[in-house]
Amino acid sequence: MKKSEMTNKMATINIRQRVEILLDGLLYMRKYAGRTIVIKYGGNAMVNEELKTSVMRDLYLLQTIGMKIVLVHGGGPAIDQAMSRLNKPTKFIDGLRYTDGDDIQIINAVLSGQVNKSLVADLHKIGARAIGLSGADGHLIQTKQLSTELGYVGKISKIDAEAIKLLLNANYIPVIASIGIDDRGQLYNVNADTAASEIAAALNAEQFILMTDVRGILRDIKDPDSLYHELSVDQVQQMLGSGALKGGMIPKIRAIIAAINNGLKEAVILDGRVEHSILLELFSTEGYGSLITQ
Ligand SMILES: Nc1ncnc2c1ncn2[C@@H]1O[C@H](COP(=O)(O)OP(=O)(O)O)[C@@H](O)[C@H]1O
Ligand SMILES: CC(=O)N[C@@H](CCC(=O)OP(=O)(O)O)C(=O)O
């Protein structure tokens, strides 16, 4: 066979494969069309710029094929950097950052300003329409003080999802920073997993995806192959009690349990370091991360 014939044959196979992939995907596109998907993005999964653009492209694709995408973000590493530039010590109590009167100003600037607008800019760069909000806008994330010990760390008392719905109906991707506000206009620092969980429940989302820097829930934290593909909410509750989950995984699992108790069918913990992990999760029967079900 001549070289040009070989190339033509390979091109045909590639096109065939592409068509088959599209047809396979159709089933899932129909499943999620018009449905709301809340994605929590933050931590170390958000640090790599190339990966960040790739995640934004996946979100744009999902929106283009008819899903309502809501992006809720944290930015712990960006806050750490700002604090260290300003020589401010950082203290965590049970995974939550002690936040004094100065800190909340810095954290608001980093999350609502720097991180939020950089995600909006990334979405804009690839052609998506996004609008950045903090939880203070449209009194979206209404909070009270969680405890005096933690300073200005907020406990969510109510989500007013009106602004999100307006943006989704106008075909924007809302990008939401995890800052809360109380009745007197005081801002609060809110854990982004918790904010995303409450927003997912308020929107009655079809899917709640938490992107992080591990494959999902691991039996042995040092062994990425020990991934739990599927767990029930009772099983993860037991794991919380037995100490099998540590550090940042604890607020994540608590957020998932709360979302499911508030009526969500399921949630997924997904590896934000792997390109297109969202598409691999949503467009396959096997999934890709750890699925937690009712
Ligand atoms: N059983 C477990 N399976 C997976 N990760 C775990 C487990 N227990 C603790 N972890 C830790 O939780 C971390 C994820 O939480 P965190 O770093 O706070 O994420 P993010 O910054 O994305 O919010 C993982 O990097 C891992 O070190
Ligand atoms: C109260 C509290 O701890 N708030 C978090 C908010 C940011 C966050 O949750 O960011 P990640 O999702 O990147 O971890 C913090 O100050 O780090």
From TrEMBL:
UniProt EC number: 2.7.2.8
Keywords: Amino-acid biosynthesis, Arginine biosynthesis, ATP-binding, Cytoplasm, Kinase, Methyltransferase, Nucleotide-binding, Transferase
InterPro entries recorded: AceGlu_kinase-like_sf, AcgluKinase_fam, ArgB, Asp/Glu/Uridylate_kinase, Glu/AcGlu_kinase, NAGK-C
Site residues, Transition state stabilizer: K40, K252
Positions that bind substrate: G75, G76, R97, N189
Subcellular location: Cytoplasm
Protein name according to UniProt: Acetylglutamate kinase
Natural source organism: Oenococcus sicerae
Gene of this entry: argB
